[in-house]
């Protein structure tokens, strides 16, 4: 069986140097991985560890003031696949979520169990054609010719993500907006550059549930914290769901 270490609090974060010193005694953690682990510090410190290494890692983190729970990987909650929408409407008793095809779902607020929001970075691979000049040879000597080749370019795109989790199906409904797209909230058309509109939406979402049932960005109304990847965003959700279950 493999194990994970889950933080007691997201506020505790080591330096890269501290993790590099710890990695000497944790064979599954390479020194080169420490920068990634610090960057990805959203609740689940490490997974897939043998029990002895997990205990060693846990003790080392405790030595620098960071408390963790040692949890079997199979006991960490997984997330449902999401159902994508584009519009949100709120009233005192329900959330109405509408797709781009104008299909509506009216979900009672009593069924809502968790809400999360956040800016997330996502890498996208795009193939383009690039021309370059090359030297070729013929019987009469060298000559210049143009050659086309396919080049793979990695583009990073930042988007704003919202997830609603319900106690009834569909369990997870999400919305995303990028630079080129829009999200509708009541009479507002919100784009990622509309910081004021995003904040208004977050303030309204914050009123729906108690703080322990929302992610850190929503609790703090933060548009400065950015999740470096979707995995990090979802890792905090899985961590939060575990903490809620652990507290009963």
What features would you highlight for this structure?
248 residues, alpha+beta, Ribosomal Protein L30, Chain: A, 3 domains, 5-stranded mixed beta sheet, 6 helices, 13 strands, 25% helix
Write a brief caption for the model.
By secondary structure, the chain is of the alpha+beta class. Helix content is 25%, strand content 40%.
Protein architecture, described:
The chain is of the alpha+beta class. The protein folds into 3 domains: 3-75, 2-Layer Sandwich (Ribosomal Protein L30, Chain: A), CATH 3.30.1390; 83-123 and 156-246, no CATH class; 128-154. It contains 6 helices and 13 strands. The chain has helices spanning 16-23, 34-39, 51-63, 195-206, 216-220, 230-246, and strands at 3-7, 44-49, 68-72, 83-84, 87-90, 94-98, 104-108, 112-138, 141-166, 172-177, 183-185, 188-190, 226-227. It has a 5-stranded mixed β-sheet with strand order 4-10-9-8-13. Strand 11 (183-185) and strand 12 form a beta hairpin. The longest helix has 17 residues, at 230-246. It is flat, with a radius of gyration of 23 Å.
Assembly status: single chain
Tally of helical runs: 6
Question: What is the chain-wise order of helices and strands?
Answer: EHHEHEEEEEEEEEEHHEH
Spatial arrangement of strands, main beta sheet: 4-10-9-8-13
Structural class: alpha+beta
Strand content: 35-45%
Q: Indicate the radius of gyration in whole angstroms.
A: 23 Å
Number of domains: 3
Please mark out the parts with pLDDT under 50 across 5 or more consecutive residues, or reply none: none
Distance between the termini: 25 Å
